Amino acid sequence: MAGPSGIEEMQQRLDYVLRPNKPIDSEALLAGRADQLQDLTTAIRMPGAHALVYGDRGVGKTSLAATAQSLHPGRAISVRINCAPDTSWSSLWGSIAAEISSDYLSSPHADQLSDAQIGAYTQAVDGLDRVTNVAQVVAPLRLLGFESPSLIVIDEFDKIEDEDVKESIANLIKALSDKAIPSTLVVVGVAHNADELFFEHESIKRSLKQVRMPRLSPEELTDVIAVAERELKIRCAADVRDRITLLSRGLPFYTHLVAWYCFEGAILERRSSIGSDDLREAQRRASRGLQEDLGKRVDQSVHSSYPGNKYWDVCVAAACAPTDRSGFFQMRDLRPVLEARTDRSYANFAFKKHLDEFCSERGPLMEAEQRGRGSTVYRFLDPLMAPYILIRESASAPLSPAIYEQLTVPGL
């Protein structure tokens, strides 16, 4: 039985292997992403190439970029910054300059740099601090690759509201590639395809390596839990592993989150196994932690003073529905879960009113798209919403076998 110090050590190991709120930055912990990591690291090494990492929220885009950074040569400049809605061209490069200054010129790294490197990097930082257009960025980036090609990761690119900034990044990628500047840009953003971020910018397709991050299969997500089991010497029951990975709907964020709570409970109670009770408690804690974000949004959408309304039932059914690669589901796919939950039969269009309201006055929680003659498909606006609804539902009562049978990974 572990004492207080043993528990603290176990918690530190838990925080290393399961990271729901922190990017993975180790190749050994990056489950199911060997192909994407190879594609990204190849683009980083290839002269004149740059990369776009895109996919749903919660699939591990930042973790892929962070792991690629960890494999970048130690003496080369490598920084990552996060964008915001108000990010401008000057603030973007000002943030990058600040990161370089903090990580390389004002840290122990500086002791490992030559005088020539320090001079080049200092000049680059000064230049980036004053840029107002694309042309002014090229010379500083040339200096950053003074001895080894530099790597700059621009994360959460989709959040930028100023379309001129996005256009400028595309133009910069073309300029860097054409002039063979030894600096690689890796742009990371939420999107279903590259065109959503770069508006079909034809001029950069030759030099921009697109790395799509699909959702992970349940088998790949099982590897996340298996690593924690080996590291912590705590066994997770097979049915618990299966439920965690199925409810995650292919998003490693949820596997890390729910598994973290499961393992923490076992550590604090000095147990070497995880069972169904641990899972239910983990689901309660996970859903409670997301209440301020996802919970409030869905609560507003399903609230009704009418007794016996089916808004929550429709949400649960929608969260279970099989989807295409872009996350859209069809109305008819709600029937199996709705009928299993209510012991009633329904027509395919019985809940069109509910879904349409989720797209308008009750949300927007979802969005609709017309396909073909009279065919409407729907999807949750936030990819994190469907797993949240399932985890919240299962925290209060076990889900029926019919629901687990319905669960698939979107896009696989």
What is this structure's SSE topology?
Elements: H1 4-17, H2 34-45, E1 50-55, H3 61-70, E2 78-82, H4 89-105, H5 115-128, H6 135-144, E3 150-155, H7 163-178, E4 183-190, H8 195-198, E5 208-213, H9 218-232, E6 235-236, H10 238-247, H11 252-268, E7 273-274, H12 276-289, H13 291-302, H14 311-320, E8 329-330, H15 335-342, H16 352-358, E9 366-370, E10 376-380, H17 385-396, H18 401-406
Parallel strand pairs: 1-4, 1-5, 2-3, 3-4, 6-7
Antiparallel strand pairs: 8-10, 9-10
Helix pairs in contact: 1-9, 1-11, 2-3, 4-5, 5-6, 9-10, 9-11, 11-12, 12-17, 14-15, 14-17
Structure overview:
With 412 residues, the protein is an alpha/beta fold. The chain has helices at 4-17, 34-45, 61-70, 89-105, 115-128, 135-144, 163-178, 195-198, 218-232, 238-247, 252-268, 276-289, 291-302, 311-320, 335-342, 352-358, 385-396, 401-406, and strands at 50-55, 78-82, 150-155, 183-190, 208-213, 235-236, 273-274, 329-330, 366-370, 376-380. A 5-stranded parallel beta sheet has the order 2-3-4-1-5, with helices on both faces. A 3-stranded antiparallel beta sheet has the order 8-10-9, with helices on one face.
Strand order of the largest sheet: 2-3-4-1-5
Distance between the termini: 43 Å
Strand content: 5-15%
**Radius of gyration of CA atoms, rounded to a whole number:** 24 Å
User: Number of DSSP helices?
Assistant: 18
Shape call: globular
- Which consecutive residue ranges, at least 5 long each, have pLDDT under 50? none
Secondary-structure element pattern, one letter each: HHEHEHHHEHEHEHEHHEHHHEHHEEHH
